[in-house]
Structure formats: C-alpha cells, structure tokens
Design goal:
The protein is mainly alpha-helical. The chain has a domain of about 100 residues. Helix content is about 75%, strand content about 0%. It is globular.
Length: about 220
C-alpha cells in the first residue's frame, strides 16, 4: 500500500513524496504493513488448500497447475528481505506452492519443467528454516530427479528426507514418513528399485496411507 502511494506521488510535487514517506514513520504504520503482508501470505496458503480440493483431487490437473502458478506469482510479488518478520513464513508457503506445481508437472509428464521448479522449491524451503518443508521438498526433488533419469541423486535426496521425517513423531512428520514409504513401494513396483518395503508401509499406519493427500508422487511405467 505504501509503495503504491509513493509511486503515485511521484507525478506530483517533491513535498507530497516526502509527506508520504514521513507518514510511514509514525508508530503503528510498520506493524500495519506487516499485518497486511501476513494476511496476504495466509490467503495464499488458504488458496493452496482450496485448489487441492477443487481441482487436484478431482484430477483436473491443468486447472490445478494454473491456479498454483497464479498463487506463486502473488507470493513472488511480496519482495521481502531476509530480515522481514514474515520472510520465512512467505518462503514456507512458497515452497509448498512450488511443490504442488512440480507435482502437477510430473503428472502431466512435463519433467524438465518440474526439475526447474524443484530447484526454486529447494531454495525456498531452505530459506524458510522449516524442517518439515525441507523434508517434503527433498522428497519431491528426489522424485523429480528420478523421473528425469538421475536415479542415484534422486534416491540420495529421498534418503535425506527420510532422516528428517524420522526426527519427530508429530502428525506432519509421520505423514511425511508414510509418503516416503509409499513412494518407495511405487518405485519398486515400477522396477526402479528392488526394495519392497510393504511391511514398513503397514507399520507406518493405515491412517497415514488413507490421508486425503496420500498420492503426492506418481510414476508412469512404460
């Protein structure tokens, strides 16, 4: 809001520009701006959930991809510096958004595009400082590398993700661990690996496998 006011003021007098800048220095102005930034981030996160249920889970992949890309554009427009109080939160939500974009691209057999997205996703996840975001991204990136032929590197990243998922016992981490083993079973079934951790999948729990987001990664078997 302040940026827009300042840009508009540039067509007027120098006094108006100075007045706008000085107005931003009054107590509470910075907090108000920070609150607006956080509200935008939260709206973007809510749109991610809505897109998942409205499009992705109904196999409307192209529409889901378009919606996720629009959300990513809105997040990118928030040009926050690392010392901004909501910088990490923005990076966390953007990493989640990029993960969804990469997943859609893989399912649509656009693996090279997915690979480019995966690198940006990893940067966002690391910048967020959020362990669960990083673990999910490593698994996503690993899946993308495998689909583009970089099997060993992909499996190594997936192993890193497993180690992070096993650090905690909260639902998100256990759910991530469930996804990891489900993906391992998919890889074995596709003949990409020789491991068949069916017993381990059962151990993780049917409640995890029955999650609405159970199928995050898909491999086409030719």
């Amino acid at each position: 809001m302040i940026k827009e006011q300042t840009m508009s003021a540039r067509i007027g007098t120098r006094f108006i520009i100075v007045a706008v800048v000085e107005m931003c220095l009054v107590p509470g102005c910075a907090q108000s701006n920070n609150d607006a930034v956080l509200a935008t981030i939260k709206r973007c996160e809510a749109r991610l959930d809505s897109t998942l249920t409205t499009f992705e889970q109904k196999e409307r992949l192209e529409e889901a991809l378009t919606a996720y890309r629009e959300i990513n554009i809105d997040l990118t427009r928030l040009e926050l510096k690392p010392d901004h109080p909501h910088y990490r939160e923005k990076q966390r939500v953007q990493a989640q958004c990029l993960l969804r974009i990469g997943n859609m691209l893989r399912q649509l057999d656009k693996n090279e595009e997915a690979l480019a997205v995966a690198q940006r996703e990893l940067e966002a996840a690391r910048a967020s400082g959020d362990t669960i975001s990083l673990a999910r991204t490593l698994m996503s990136y690993g899946a993308t590398l495998i689909t583009t032929g970089e099997k060993e590197r992909g499996l190594n990243l997936m192993e890193e993700s497993r180690q992070l998922f096993e650090q905690r016992t909260s639902y998100d981490f256990q759910q991530g661990l469930g996804w990891y083993w489900i993906l391992q079973a998919d890889l074995a079934q596709a003949g990409i690996t020789s491991t068949k951790p069916i017993e381990r999948i059962a151990f993780v729990g049917a409640n995890i496998m029955a999650s609405s987001q159970r199928i995050l990664f898909r491999f086409s078997v030719n």
